[in-house]
Amino acid sequence: MKPSRGAEALRAFKDLGISIQAFDWDCAAEVLAAALETGLTIYGSVYLHLSRRLNCRLVTADRELEEKGEKLCRDHPSRGPKPPAVNGTLPVFGGTRLEQDGFAT
Question: What is the DSSP string of 15-41?
Answer without folding.
Answer: HTT--PPP--HHHHHHHHHHHHHH---
